[in-house]
Design goal:
By secondary structure, the protein is mainly alpha-helical. Helices cover 85% and strands 0% of the residues. It has one domain.
Length: 204
């Protein structure tokens, strides 16, 4: 394996670095974007239970804010629960933008890795072919071993670049869709709470 990496030349170093970063992002996002961590089950129902029983205080709101992404959004609405509906919705939307930004963290980096890894492989291919033609110019085509180094670099860097880019692109697309799904689900939960609080205000 070490010999294969060496055969790929110096461009293998940034390709391997891209592989390490991409793997780290994919594993970190897998942990962070779990459904139970972003949208805990029955959280909205639990919060509404606190509201109906008048058990909601600043400490619970703070705990809710720190507990999950959905908790942050619901907490923003609860802080303004005694104000007008538009103010409540605006505060939820503002918090929601920050939450989405956090959910999308590192995804642009992953997308960039998916884009540049094949280009690094292609650059390695070009450099390898330049070496081949330089060797042909100097030694002719009689000795295949003279050409082997350039051809090996051309093939290995291309394969390495694609090996990094393909899983990185799959991870990028998957987590993009994952975030979109989670955002839609959080919007539904937030709307349910806003409507329930609004009806409660009208009755009161």
């Amino acid at each position: 394996m070490v010999e294969v990496v060496k055969s790929g030349g110096w461009l293998m170093a940034p390709i391997i670095l891209c592989a390490i970063i991409a793997t780290g992002i994919i594993l970190e996002r897998f942990w962070t974007l779990q459904q139970k961590r972003v949208i805990p089950e029955d959280l909205t129902s639990k919060v509404w239970g606190w509201v109906k029983k008048d058990q909601l205080d600043q400490k619970q709101i703070q705990s809710l804010h720190q507990g999950s992404a959905l908790g942050q959004i619901l907490a923003a609405g609860l802080i303004n629960r005694d104000r007008e509906r538009d103010i409540m919705k605006d505060s939820i939307e503002d918090t929601g933008r920050h939450v989405v930004h956090e959910l999308e963290r590192y995804l642009e980096t992953l997308g960039t890795i998916a884009a540049i890894s094949p280009l690094l492989g292609l650059l390695g291919t070009v450099i390898g072919m330049v070496k081949v033609f330089a060797a042909i110019t100097t030694y002719g085509v009689g000795d295949p071993t003279v050409l082997a180094g350039g051809i090996a670099q051309a093939l290995i860097t291309t394969a390495a670049g694609l090996s990094v880019a393909i899983p990185a692109l799959i991870g990028y697309r998957y987590y993009r869709n994952r975030v979109d799904t989670l955002v839609v689900d959080m919007e539904k939960e937030a709307i349910k709470l806003v409507e329930a609080l609004h009806r409660r205000q009208e009755k009161g």
